[in-house]
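USER: If only I could read backbone structure tokens as easily as an amino acid sequence. It would mean a lot if you studied the pair and described how this chain folds. Here is the record:
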Amino acid sequence: MNDPERPQVSRRRLVKYAGVGATFVAAGPLAPTAAADEAEVQGRGDSRHRVWRAGDHHVHSEYSGSFDTSVSPPRFTKGADAVYPIVTNAIMAKHFGLTWAMCTDHGGPTHSKVNLELAYPDLLRSRKLVPEVLQFWGMEFDTPAQDHHTLMIPRHDDEAKQLFELESRFAKHDAFPADPGRDTEAKMIEFLKAAKDMRHKPLVIGHHTSRSASGLGVYGQDTPREFRNGNNIAPDVYVGFEGAPGHQAGPLNGGARGGYGNYPTHGGFDQMTARVGGLWDSLLGEGRRWWITATSDSHVHWTRGGADFWPGEYSKTYVLARQDYGDIMDGLRNGRIFVTTGDLITSLDLAARSRDRDAAVGETLHLRKRDRNDVDIEIRFRPLDGKNGNGDRPEVRRVDLIVGNVTGVNANLDADTNPTTKVVARFGPRDWRRQGSEYVIRHTLRNVEQDLYARVRGTNTDEAEPLPDGKENPWTDLWFYSNPVFVRLV
């Protein structure tokens, strides 16, 4: 089980190193990082009591319903698309080990009023009934010119009014009668500009971004250009996309994982994430702080004929944070995230270190160009102690270290590859060493001479690369992914 008071790995001192692929002994707190990294350290806030906390930011309730537009105003009916009350989702999230979750219902004509007058009071009741789960307010935003996105509102007294303002002004389906001018990229940019200027900054994260893609690199509603343009406008609001989309139980009822009926997921992950050197790596290669998450997109459980698992039953987004609304959002905003399916692991720490400096996931290790820089990479993961939602005890068979160069902003807004990104090392059970309840891997990047990032993935399969998904049982094809740690030469 996860130890709620285990200190984060990035705050430990590495005191013994025995070569590439070897493990090390860790003891004692790290001294403050060098002056070049001081501003970043100050920006992290109080890191005490931050542990890996599992959550899900894409969950539907009965307020994902239908609208009768033959009358004015449109008449809303609950439960037409998703069927569970908000509190039921919270109870199941708690049951499957989540400590935070988010209600993200579909919009529609005048849905902003439904959210404000009907759904939000139910959320407040659910917060009282299930206080163990931090329950965020927001929606599955009907994104202008793109597929759906999470719109997560910070917890504050006027959170309901803030969502109402954004949804009523910018959601492409909220206007009645319909307004084609809402469904343009210009409207999306207008929305992001408004969001970034708010006192309480929301978060925007793309959903099932390749579900409409017709092939590998042949994108549909969401394109590399749109991600770049949006991130350029609001880099601290528009921060990433789902690496592993929801609807993962589809094959259990004869469907496709994620509902990806045109071009499939790979190991349950969207092609934009799963393809080494693909779009995600292209964005990271520009130095963008662009993160991935994993969600349930729960509407109807597969045992009732749906394509879904309960929140936390199969996919989890872990955030290194305190059990606090603000710190959970800070972790999501700043990339202190790893994701896993099938509870393959319950913690994952990735750190980069050189001399007396270190950085963890979402952070940057600053080094001097004039030095000869070897960078020690540390990977720590904790396997599941017990059985997952399918009654299995999954085992990690391999861990991959993936590294790519950071070369600066790409003039081609449509670029979706980073040819420098490679799997630089693969580790099996003989390459890691047990320390307490964790496994530890060490690797050294020798003589680093340019900016780079490192990220990690692992699997219970023997696939060298995640293969396109068919109708396999999703419980047999499990993966985890870290977000990146950056190395910058100054």
User: Anything to note?
Assistant: Residues 111-129 form the longest helix (19 residues). Residues 1-44 have pLDDT under 50 and may be disordered.
